[in-house]
DNA sequence: GACCTAAGTTCACGATTTGTAGGAAGTCCG
DNA sequence: CGGACTTCCTACAAATCGTGAACTTAGGTC
């Protein structure tokens, strides 16, 4: 009731930049009196602060309001295959401190990841010198399926994790509230709030890297399905009976447009000769750069765009989104060079009607946005709850 | 505010069968006092009525409440390629009258469809002898993309309609409120409320007939996308570079599992010899029945199940639904015979995690449920508005 | 310095929800 | 047959919350 309206106002102030009370009234269709009331409360609590004023032809100037960037802090962590990255942000999402821990082993034990995340949490808080009580929460992004927000059971093929209760494990080591989510979803969230997805309510953020995934955004919030494993776009069949995918099935999109799949296809077309380059990324760039000189490379890249276009078209036809945002490291490399061709390929496979309504863009935030997206999880909760639920400044991270 | 609570209570009563005030309090998490208040209002207005009582061990018996079936009536219309079907229901969704008008021409003019729908509306109301003012509204299902609920611009390839403002055209001929929606969506709605989808909140109702489509249900209500053309599952690419589809693209699912596509594939595999049988349906049944004797038929059907399984798997991976319901005339014919094989085929293409969480079922309502689903549109509005918005008994259908 | 415009605030009112207590409708047991 | 008991439903007062109208504040203009 009242909380709901607080939430609406706070969200409006946060999402639509500095606003005056007057504009707030219009945006939220609440009466000026209510706005004044609730804003007064939020000001008293310190969540919101005044930020200059704007002349308004002739009359009293409007006082602008914004969410106080230092009202609280949020932490975002990314648990990837090769590293754990922890970042501290203020509420304006400015990075204040970063801690990175490389992971050398191929299939790291969950305990190691937990240790690094907690260590990083301690480190970034210590570096900036804020009190733990000021940290509203920590979001943790992990490359796998995350079941339910309760214990956050994680299934991650690439990490070798099966039913790891990551949320519970982390919560046991700190008093700071923990939220765990899929990395694709958090990156999607970051792009929707601060990147190429701004303003859209129905969108898909497609991530093409070594693997392929997507975050589905419906009605402004990300869609998770029954048990939060929605968005596995990479393992939709696009060539029935086609190439074997690492998921075990045949003809998955990932086997054709994921970087690994592209390099394998190149090697196959190149008479068994792999693409030169130290790591996967170098090799992928090598293929892209040799398009002008190598017919094999040209064909492989052209096909990749075709497959990707068909994959996008499937999203367009099924979801009728207003925007599709392409990200992921190899997706961006492709998109930077071939966006027009990609759009054309989508048009070839999509229905005219929904195709005319979708715009296809590139991610604007870098790869590190995964952690930032994770950090938006506690922010989202702050907005949803319409302000802070006070928390005793407790334990940052228990020694393990 | 109050209306919202009325809506919650009314919806609960409608969806969860006869309920006592006591149970309502629990379900809606409203106080007993509020429930009593609002139920009193609803009883006074006649939307809700008492329906017997149930002993409650020892104490005062609970009085059951239900939505009064004769509080109002709703009409559902189906505009198909070969017929216009109009049905009148009471609020318990019992059919009270039916009117069917065959369409002989291949691409009927929109005006003809409008004429039949209005004529049917008149006919069913006249047959039962109720006052037009008692009709809460008419839902119209049409085989095509319906844009926006305002004017309801219809794009229907199969009917040859391009940007037909069907909603506005119908509204001009009657004072009864009109709602237009896609036929796949309305059938999906019917199955979700009264058929195989009962109880599920995230589901997909897949329709396989001559063409192929799907209704996506997310969080209990059907998902429409930016401009209500979501759910075009039939035109997702499943065989990259494969068979030409009537939509113009290549390798669409519809070209493989739609009845038309199946028959074409049979003819191709049969050395150009088409399947015997007068119309499409007879021919399709013919193919199914000859599986035991004809190797060609066996292969075609087996492949069809495979393609359909992959198409289902795509839905499973992307949406993580809790249920998939297969309907449509040819889909049902296939499903009745090969549901276990289909489930197995889905398992081959889907990820283990989401596959384990989905159940695959057959539609329980017949093909005529399209009109019934359309009739749920006004019911849905009644529930959303928490009761009746009184309307002067006006014009049923103006002469044209 | 008076007047004008527009923004923000205060206050009383109406609408609603919610505890709480009491009434109603049965069963059970002597 | 009737009192005690259980359970469901409702009436009343108290508290909460949003809204409209009047009022105050802040700056510009002549």
Brief overview, please?
Chain A is an alpha/beta fold and 400 residues long. The first copy, chain A, has 13 helices and 16 strands. The two termini of chain A are 43 Å apart.
Description:
By secondary structure, chain A is α/β, with parallel strands linked by helices. Chain A has three domains: 66 residues, Winged helix-like DNA-binding domain superfamily/Winged helix DNA-binding domain (Arc Repressor Mutant, subunit A, Orthogonal Bundle), CATH 1.10.10.10; 131 residues, ATPase, nucleotide binding domain (Nucleotidyltransferase, domain 5); 165 residues, 2-Layer Sandwich (Nucleotidyltransferase, domain 5). Chain A has 13 helices and 16 strands. In chain A, the strands form four sheets. In chain A, strands 6-5-4-7-11 form a five-stranded mixed sheet, with helices on both faces. In chain A, α1 packs across α3, α2 crosses α3 and α8 runs antiparallel to α10. At the A-B interface, β13, α10 and α12 of A face β13, α10 and α12 of B. Chain A binds a DNA duplex (30 and 30 nucleotides) through α3.
């Amino acid at each position: 009731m009242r909380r709901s309206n607080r939430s609406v106002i706070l969200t409006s102030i946060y999402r639509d930049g500095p606003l005056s009370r007057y504009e707030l009234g219009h945006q939220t269709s609440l009466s000026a009196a209510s706005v004044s009331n609730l804003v007064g409360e939020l000001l008293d609590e310190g969540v919101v602060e005044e930020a200059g004023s704007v002349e308004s032809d002739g009359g009293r100037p409007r006082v602008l309001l914004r969410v106080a960037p230092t009202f609280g802090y949020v932490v975002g962590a990314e648990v990837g295959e090769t590293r754990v990255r922890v970042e501290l942000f203020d509420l304006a999402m400015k990075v204040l401190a970063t801690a990175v821990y490389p992971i050398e082993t191929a299939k790291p034990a969950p305990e190691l990841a937990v240790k690094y995340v907690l260590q990083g949490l301690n480190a970034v808080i210590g570096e900036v010198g804020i009190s733990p009580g000021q940290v509203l929460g920590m979001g943790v992004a992990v490359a796998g399926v995350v079941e339910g927000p309760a214990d956050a059971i994680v299934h991650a093929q690439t990490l070798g994790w099966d039913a790891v209760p990551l949320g519970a494990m982390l919560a046991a080591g700190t008093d700071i509230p923990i939220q765990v989510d899929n990395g694709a979803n958090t990156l999607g969230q970051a792009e929707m709030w601060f990147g190429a997805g701004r303003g859209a309510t129905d969108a898909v953020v497609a991530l093409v890297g070594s693997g392929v995934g997507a975050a589905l955004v419906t009605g402004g919030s990300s869609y998770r399905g029954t048990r939060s494993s929605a968005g596995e776009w990479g393992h939709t069949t696009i060539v029935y009976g086609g190439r074997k995918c690492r998921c075990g099935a045949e003809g998955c999109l990932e086997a054709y447009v994921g970087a690994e799949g592209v390099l394998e296809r190149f090697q196959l077309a190149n008479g068994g000769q792999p693409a030169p380059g130290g790591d996967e990324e170098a090799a992928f760039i090598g293929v892209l750069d040799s398009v002008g000189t190598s017919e094999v490379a040209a064909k492989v890249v052209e096909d990749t765009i075709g497959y990707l276009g068909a994959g996008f078209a499937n999203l367009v036809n099924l979801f009728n989104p207003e925007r599709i945002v392409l990200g992921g490291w190899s997706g961006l490399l492709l998109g930077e060079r071939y966006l027009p061709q990609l759009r054309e390929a989508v048009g070839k496979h999509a229905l005219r009607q929904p195709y005319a309504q979708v715009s296809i863009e590139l991610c604007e935030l870098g790869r590190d946005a995964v952690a930032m997206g994770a950090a938006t999880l506690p922010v989202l909760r702050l907005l949803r709850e319409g302000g802070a639920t006070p928390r005793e400044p407790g334990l940052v991270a228990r020694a393990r």
